[in-house]
Amino acid sequence: MTQRVLLTGGAGYIGSHTHVALVNAGYEVLVLDNFSNSARDVPSRLETVTGQAVHVIEGDVLDRALLDRVFADHDIDAVIHFAASKSVGESMRKPLAYMQNNIVGLVTLMQAMDAADVRRLVFSSSATVYGSAADLPIRETEPLSYGNPYGHSKLVCEQIIEQTVASDPRWAVGVLRYFNPVGAHPSGLIGEDPAGLPDNLMPYVAKVAAGQLPVLSVFGDDYPTPDGTGVRDYIHVFDLAQGHVQSLAALERDGTGHVVNLGTGRGYSVLDLIATYARASNRDIPYKIAPRRDGDAASSYADPSLAKTVLGFEAQYDLFDMCRTSWVWMQNSAQKAEG
Ligand code: WQD
């Protein structure tokens, strides 16, 4: 019997790529999205990529009455919860909005799931719960901390999940701690589409390569790293999407949950990424050295071994693939904007 999965935030960057991976794996998918941070034409683009109709409900996970109707009207077997605010910088300016959207949103969703007897959940967490002083490579047993309201909200969500599972073993929850998701679907039809100035490195580099921004500021070149710039574990968004499919399968198989890192285990510096992007796009990427950004760690990269053991997860794409697919998406969306 085909499993039906509700994707909250399913029109977003990671949600849309996971939609494709789930359809490819034979799941039926239902999308709930308020389109606060996703383009309204993503569902139609998903239909082109998957060749299948996309079922979308416009709404918010904070709307309990809507959630109750969704579970009553659709025979849902599991939920993947992407719908959350995710900008570190914005969270510093709007902490209460982040607590409301990310924490109250999760609680409302889990209450509606419980009332509908749906207790299989995959939760989108982040390596940001390790704070900036973690031992490397980062293992899931590393002490948790936070350096900003976004990371704080993710940590509280993980604690809420832990307490819920402890109180009711009928719950099976996969907590996935993403490292740095980048890249786009090879078709170039879906990808990262940040509104305004990108916070993150890869989408900023993409806009500089496309000539939409004049120069990249490299936040510090005096870190204790091989070339002095920040080192991160960049993971292709399609690898990340596959990890969600494997997490769902593990919940179904084991009847219990897991907390795993989703990363490649390889760290690349800012200058590594700039050089790789220049090769992948055949474009110059002007940059200048700027002061360090508050809260940044020098290095962060995963020990990915637990995800391999528990889920069978192993990242397939390399940094060039991440840059190349990002560039194809950048060109397509630039042509669409001109068109
Ligand atoms: C990467 C490196 C910067 C921009 C954050 C969140 C994390 C996740 C991914 C949500 C760092 C440097 C960046 C720029 C730069 N988000 N940089 N110039 O900070 O590792 O992670 O985004 O889940 O939770 O914490 O990613 O891409 O912002 O930075 O030099 O214009 O690039 O200093 O070394 P980060 P990032």
Structure explained in plain terms:
With 339 residues, the protein is α/β, with parallel strands linked by helices. It contains eleven helices and 14 strands. The protein has a seven-stranded parallel beta sheet with strand order 3-2-1-4-5-6-11, with helices on both faces. Strands 12-9-14 form a three-stranded mixed beta sheet. Strands 7-10 form a two-stranded parallel ribbon. β2 (28-33), α2 and β3 form a beta-alpha-beta unit. α5 (95-115) packs parallel to α6 (149-167) and α7 (201-209) runs parallel beside α9. It is globular and about 55 Å long. The structure holds UDP-4-deoxy-4-formamido-beta-L-arabinopyranose (WQD). Residues 86, 88, 126, 128, 178, 180, 199-201, 204, 216-219, 230, 232, 270, 293, 296 line the site of UDP-4-deoxy-4-formamido-beta-L-arabinopyranose (WQD). Residues 86, 88, 126, 128, 178, 180, 199-201, 204, 216-219, 230, 232, 270, 293, 296 line the site of UDP-4-deoxy-4-formamido-beta-L-arabinopyranose. Keywords: Carbohydrate metabolism, Galactose metabolism, Isomerase, NAD. Residues 5-263 form the NAD-dependent epimerase/dehydratase domain. InterPro entries: Epimerase_deHydtase (IPR001509), NAD(P)-bd_dom_sf (IPR036291), UDP_G4E (IPR005886). Belongs to the NAD(P)-dependent epimerase/dehydratase family.
